[in-house]
Amino acid sequence: MSKVTTMEEAIKRHVRDGDTVYIAGFTHLINFSAGHEMIRQRKRNLVLCRPTPDLVFDQMIAAGCARKVVFSWAGNPGVGSLRCFRRAVEHGIPNRIEIEEYTHFSMVARIYAGALNLPFMPLRTNICSDLPKVNRNIKFITCPFTGEKISVVPALKPDVSIVHAQRSDENGNAQIWGIIGDQREAAFAAEKVILSVEEIVEENVIRRDPNRTLIPDFIVDSVVEEPWAAHPSYVQGYYDRDNDFYLEWDKISREPELVEKYLEEWVYSVENRKEYVEKLGAGRVLKLLPKRFYSLPVDYGFYR
Amino acid sequence: MSKVTTMEEAIKRHVRDGDTVYIAGFTHLINFSAGHEMIRQRKRNLVLCRPTPDLVFDQMIAAGCARKVVFSWAGNPGVGSLRCFRRAVEHGIPNRIEIEEYTHFSMVARIYAGALNLPFMPLRTNICSDLPKVNRNIKFITCPFTGEKISVVPALKPDVSIVHAQRSDENGNAQIWGIIGDQREAAFAAEKVILSVEEIVEENVIRRDPNRTLIPDFIVDSVVEEPWAAHPSYVQGYYDRDNDFYLEWDKISREPELVEKYLEEWVYSVENRKEYVEKLGAGRVLKLLPKRFYSLPVDYGFYR
Amino acid sequence: MKYSRNELMVVAAARELKNGETVLVGVGLPNLACNLAKRIHAPNLTMIYESGVIGAEPSRLPLSIGDPCIVTNSKSVCSMFEVFSYYLQSHRVDVGFLGGAQIDKYGNINTTVIGSYAAPKIRLPGSGGACDIAHLAKRIIIITPHQKRRLVDKIDFLTSPGVLEREKLEVKGKGGIKVITSLGVLSFNEKHGELVLESIYPGVTVEEIKENTGWNLKISELLKVTPEPTTLELSTLRSLDPSKIYI
Amino acid sequence: MKYSRNELMVVAAARELKNGETVLVGVGLPNLACNLAKRIHAPNLTMIYESGVIGAEPSRLPLSIGDPCIVTNSKSVCSMFEVFSYYLQSHRVDVGFLGGAQIDKYGNINTTVIGSYAAPKIRLPGSGGACDIAHLAKRIIIITPHQKRRLVDKIDFLTSPGVLEREKLEVKGKGGIKVITSLGVLSFNEKHGELVLESIYPGVTVEEIKENTGWNLKISELLKVTPEPTTLELSTLRSLDPSKIYI
Fold first, then answer.
1. Residue A304 belongs to some domain of the structure
2. Which end of chain A is more exposed for a tag (fewer CB within 10 A), N or C?
3. D159 touches chain A (CB under 8 A)
């Protein structure tokens, strides 16, 4: 049975209200398409996890999907404040959300531990900070070899992880280049994995460069061919970050009415990502295309 | 000042008697050239570390370089017994050696912890085994989150690590494909790093595919352009494992006299790797070349 | 078609593998068993090597678990630490193959030393990944020649845990170990609390098996005769090892 | 050539970087400082981004620490966990850049919350990598506008440790923190046990600085006037940010 499906179907099948959902991507390959689909399907009471909530979680929080956010840096990257997140934390609008907060290293160590099926990861941070005072999940142990004090954080095992990659085959063997971020850990740590890709390619393309495959097929539950899934974030070699939108969101997100209007126009009234890209228009899309810049092939050798 | 030097010079400069030396490579990219150079320079009292001692340590043990071996599987891979190692362990020939023994996972977790500057790594093995009884470095702790018992092993931080890669630039930005093994961890864990490569390439070749670079220049101390450094092991895309030699060693290593003769002929009487390859002869060398099998280029995009 | 007992041993091992499973392959007989299963009834078997290769499709018979032929045309390659942690430790390996110099009635394995550890009679290669696999793979298949010196009452050193020890672990290994020998198949029996003879190769007698086992081997009430290799199984197996290196 | 205080702030930060060092770059002013240093006196500065990019040579001014322009033509890319563990945790980062909403006389930084944590007046973005960098980089450079509300007597929340806290850590941070403001440079003084004014920008008075500092700032006995930017520094800096986004 083929794993290839639509984003609508994948979200419907794998994401239940109340789930712990991890959308991977450090600035790069952020799956806005999946975020919008969860908003459209009015998913509720989600525990949303990523190091940087970014605009994707800001929008989901504004749409009332979240009951809790697990994160390490909640800002609009390169722009400023994450206003819907702040409104929820400071004023409970549209609903109160719980927060669970870490340093970047601690947050990625948690998802790493989840991926490796370790109950915890040790790491050399958190010792001189108030963060452990407000987050009981940040603990300290004594190294049994050196006697030194070291921080530990527990594994994070999402119910669903949503990752995006440049390409995969139909079974979900995914190749990623550029900033890897937390895509691989997110996939390995989760119960269910939704993978979307810019392009589905022949298995043969993947097998010609196995060292580039970060996610193997048998841990992937659904594969969605979803070009421009990451907009306004970006995909290395495919399109640039739409920085104008990040700036625009800074204005939109100041006013709940403007946010509502944005969600109505760009999420609820839009059927899927294809329609969203159509709505962006050719001019905006073309402006975001980089020039080609290819790697050189390497020789794996054929051995008889 | 250029880091590019000869293997002779690199070993002379970085390896002192008594050092803890790690030669990286799981079946692939094993640096026999460095091993032979240490034998030629009559290094003594070394603590030799690798998961699989393989023939390279078997030869170094026979030559009297080792006072201790840290390992997880001491065999002739795909062939059978590692006879010089056994002779030293069972009969103290040519000298008694101490052994410190782990499972594969524990051994690579140790060098991984060293690379990450962690004092220990937790891992889910060793619980039901006699190994912890004979190795005090395998300990158990209680997870502060789940209460479960989990094994821990201490970091391994070699004085010198010796790694081999397909290619690097003159500064030592190294790219590896095929079996990665422990090359990266070995480099990051060590005080000093000797990198040898099949080819030194222009920095530009490296920069066209940064995701392929596993070892960055600033952790490398010496760069040696040493084609066929891994023979009789192999280099993906460059040459095959010389299995005939692995079989031959099984015979040679049965008799100390034959080993002595081998070392005399192929190590002591040979000035460097170039002479060694010349001695192998064109026929043997050509037989080991694979057919070409190239990866496809990927597009990183040029962003303005 | 005539066949050897070693051939049936590989065929019996191949039959244990299910389509869609992930299997941590060893070199030699396990590699033959996996490739055979893949060609006969389990085309979607994912072969993983502890060297870090995932989804290998070797173009020739690999001579070691790090043979370059397993890399070319594979689905993914990762580091050695990664294959043990991302794959094995996270229970993403359904079946692990093991062998051993000594195996007892619980499937406990010794690959470390014959004699005492401090003053060994024979120093064996050691655990390698075996202890890790026995802790973390969901099922274990042990392939071994059926010899009294291998199937022993008491092993000299516990390298890798068997069924009873595995029960204490997260994987819950009860019944998760089968021993495929050159004479028959042993599997865990709840009632007896140990490995019992479950299936016997055509032409082999229970007496012959008992004589070649180092403990008083229990026989299953439902003892079967292992079905002979089919022509397809046999011809496929022989095509996999044309130079008869392993069979 | 005329210059702004912000321009001198970037130039002063650039001068702190030595050739051959590795620096964990932030977006904005730190990025400008690093690129300036690289072009003037530190051609072998290795720029590392917490997004996992090593040895970046950005073709344009990066708009975030994950901008695609820092990847293309870089030396190496790794995962986020790897950059924090292989590089930062293993003390392979010589210099880390930080900023903050509140900074005290020891270089302790708050980027988490103004007011109480449970009921915040202003919820700030949080630590991100800052707490980790403050624990693990060998030296810290803080770039900040010199304002009374930022340079405070008491921070509301300790996100990232300063000089005294760092002393307890493996990195031994004593003296390892400099604060480069829009008016001058503060550095740790052993005698006073806190950050003191070490250098003052041309045209700025000590009174102006004291008025804009939230504690009774001590002045170094060896107070210097920061040398003006050279023509080369200034023209290079301006070419790095032609649209004047940051300066």
1. no
2. N
3. yes
Using the Cβ of B199 and the Cβ atoms of chain A, whether some distance falls under 8 Å is answered with no
**Whole-complex ipTM:** 0.97
| Mutate: best of A148, A299, A302, A304, partner B, most B CBs <10 A | A299
* Interchain CB distance below 8 Å, A146 and B119: yes
Task: For residue B304, tell me if it sits in a domain.
Answer: no
Chains B and D touch (3+ CB pairs under 8 A): yes
Beta strands in chain C, from DSSP E residues, in sequence order: 22-24, 46-49, 53-54, 76-77, 95-98, 102-103, 109-110, 113-115, 120-123, 139-144, 177-181, 184-189, 194-200, 218-225
Query: Could you tell me the CATH number of the domain that includes residue B75?
Result: 3.40.1080.10
Sequence-ordered list of residues with C-beta below 8 angstroms from that of B261, at least 6 positions apart, any chain = none
Q: Report if residue D246 sits inside a domain.
A: no
State which residues form the domain around A143.
120-154
Full DSSP string of B247-269: HHHHHHTT-HHHHHHHHIIIIIT
The reported pLDDT for the residue numbered D26 is 81
Residue A201 sits in the same domain as residue A271:
yes
Query: What chain C residue is nearest to B122 in terms of C-alpha separation?
Result: C85
pTM beyond 0.90, yes or no: yes
Choice among C16, C50, C194, C198 that is catalytic: C50
User: Quick check: is B241 in a domain?
Assistant: yes
Instruction: Domain of residue D205: give its range.
Output: 5-240
Q: Are D6 and D247 in contact (CB under 8 A)?
A: yes
How close A104 comes to chain B (CA, Å)?
16
D50 is catalytic: yes
Rounded Cα–Cα distance for residues D233 and D244 (Å): 16
Q: Which of D7, D21, D50, D233 is catalytic?
A: D50
**Largest CA-CA distance found in chain A, in angstroms, rounded:** 68
Residue A181's alpha-carbon distances to C158, D47, D66, in angstroms, are 41, 17, 9
User: Which pLDDT band, with edges at 50, 70 and 90, does D63 fall under?
Assistant: confident
CATH number of D113's domain: 3.40.1080.10
Is the same domain home to A76 and A144? no
Full DSSP string of B263-291: HIIIIIT--SHHHHHHHH-HHHHHHTPPB
Average pLDDT score over chain D:
94
Same domain (yes/no): B64, B142: no
A132 shares its domain with A20: no
| Nearest-CB residue to C76 (from A115, A117, A210) | A210
In a domain, A293, yes or no: no
